[in-house]
Specification:
Blueprint lengths: L22 H13 L1 H5 L3 H16 L4 E5 L1 H18 L6 E5 L17 H9 L8 E6 L5 H12 L3 E6 L5 H5 L2 E4 L14 H20 L16 H15 L3 H10 L4 H10 L3 H10 L4 H9 L2
Parallel strand pairs: 1-2, 1-3, 3-4, 4-5
Helix pairs in contact: 3-8, 4-8, 5-6, 9-10, 9-11, 10-11, 11-12, 11-13
Catalytic activity: N-acetyl-D-muramate 6-phosphate + H2O = N-acetyl-D-glucosamine 6-phosphate + (R)-lactate
Keywords: Carbohydrate metabolism, Lyase
Subunit structure: Homodimer.
Length: about 300
C-alpha cells in the first residue's frame, strides 16, 4: 500500500514546525485546521441525503443501519449507534456499530484487525445481514481491508452499502453503492486521522442518524419526543419537552408522564388532545408513532 498518495497521510505544510511552538500556538494551529472541516462536507450533502432516505426505508421495512469500521472510524460508528436508544427510544438492534476486534478494541489497539478482510465478512455474518439492511463502512483511507471484506459480503446479501471516507477515488468508494468522500486533507500531525478526518466522520454520522430519526417520526418540531427518561436529568428533559410541545404546566406534564409510564410522546398526545391515557397510546400506535401525524388526524376528525 502506497500511503504517500493518500491525502490523509501527506505532511501539512502549515505545521512542519509545530514541535517548536508554544502551547498556545500549537492549540491555534489545531483550531485553524479544524475550522475548515465542516466546509469539506458541503460537496457531499446530496450523497448523505440519499443514504438517509435508504436508512428510513430500511427502518420502515424492519431493516437496520449498520456502521462498520476499524480503529477511530469503528469507535465513531459505535458511539453514534449507542446514542440512538437513549435519545430516540429505539431498539438497540436498530442502529448497530461494529468495530474490528470487537468491544475490546474500543479502548485498545488490536494488531492486524483492520487488515483482516475475512473478519469484516464474519462480523456481518454474525449479525445475520439481509437485503433490508443498510451498511455504512467508515475509513479515512478508504482502503481498509476489514471494511472492504464487510462490504463485499454485504453485496452478496444485496444490502445497500455506503462508504464514508476521507480520500479520493478509494477502493471503498468504488465498491459502495454510494460513496461519501469528505476530503479533509493533511492532518496537523501527519497521519493522525483521529483529528480532522475523525471530526468530519463524526459530523456526517450525526447527520445520518439524526436526519433518519427526524424523517422516521422520532422528532416533533425539534424536540426529541422519544427520549427515554432513565435518570433524573432525562426525566426533567422529558417534562420540559412535554411543556414545550403541549403548553401544559410542569405539574400537568409530570402527571401525564406518570399516566403514560414514562412515554413522553404519548403524554404530549394526551395533553394536546385531551383523550384518556389509554387512548393516547392507541392513537399513536395507529400512526406508527408519528406524533404530528397522529395529532393532525385526530383533530381533523
Amino acid at each position: 500500500m502506497d500511503l504517500t498518495k493518500l491525502a490523509t497521510e501527506k505532511r501539512n505544510p502549515d505545521t512542519v514546525t509545530i514541535d517548536e511552538l508554544t502551547t498556545l500556538e500549537v492549540i491555534q494551529k489545531i483550531h485553524e485546521a479544524d475550522l475548515g472541516v465542516a466546509s469539506c462536507i458541503t460537496p457531499v450533502l446530496k450523497e448523505i441525503s440519499f443514504v438517509v432516505e435508504k436508512v428510513v426505508t430500511a427502518f420502515e421495512n424492519e431493516g437496520r443501519l449498520i456502521y462498520i469500521g476499524a480503529g477511530t472510524s469503528g469507535r465513531l460508528g459505535v458511539l453514534d449507534a449507542s446514542e440512538c436508544p437513549p435519545t430516540y427510544g429505539t431498539d438497540p438492534k436498530l442502529v448497530v456499530g461494529v468495530i474490528a476486534g470487537g468491544e475490546y478494541a474500543l479502548q485498545h489497539a488490536i494488531e492486524g484487525a483492520e487488515d483482516d478482510a475475512e473478519l469484516g465478512e464474519s462480523d456481518l455474518k454474525a449479525l445475520n445481514l439481509t437485503e433490508k439492511d443498510v451498511v455504512v463502512a467508515i475509513a479515512a483511507s478508504g482502503r481498509t481491508p476489514y471494511c472492504l471484506g464487510a462490504m463485499k459480503y454485504a453485496k452478496t446479501k444485496e444490502a445497500f452499502t455506503a462508504a464514508l471516507v476521507c480520500s479520493s477515488d478509494s477502493p471503498m468508494e468504488k465498491l459502495a453503492d454510494i460513496g461519501i468522500p469528505v476530503i479533509t486533507g493533511p492532518e496537523v500531525v501527519t497521519g493522525s486521522t483521529r483529528m480532522k478526518a475523525g471530526t468530519a466522520q463524526k459530523l456526517v454520522l450525526n447527520m445520518i442518524s439524526t436526519a433518519s430519526m427526524v424523517r422516521w417520526g422520532k422528532v416533533y418540531s425539534n424536540l426529541m419526543v422519544d427520549v427515554q427518561p432513565t435518570n433524573e436529568k432525562l426525566v426533567q428533559r422529558a417534562k420540559n419537552i412535554i411543556v414545550e410541545a403541549s403548553g401544559a404546566t410542569e405539574e400537568e406534564a409530570e402527571m401525564a408522564l406518570q399516566d403514560q409510564g414514562g412515554n413522553t410522546k404519548a403524554a404530549i398526545f394526551q395533553l394536546v388532545t385531551g383523550v384518556a391515557p389509554h387512548e393516547a397510546k392507541l392513537q399513536l400506535d395507529q400512526h406508527k408513532g408519528k406524533l404530528k401525524e397522529a395529532i393532525r388526524n385526530f383533530t381533523q376528525k
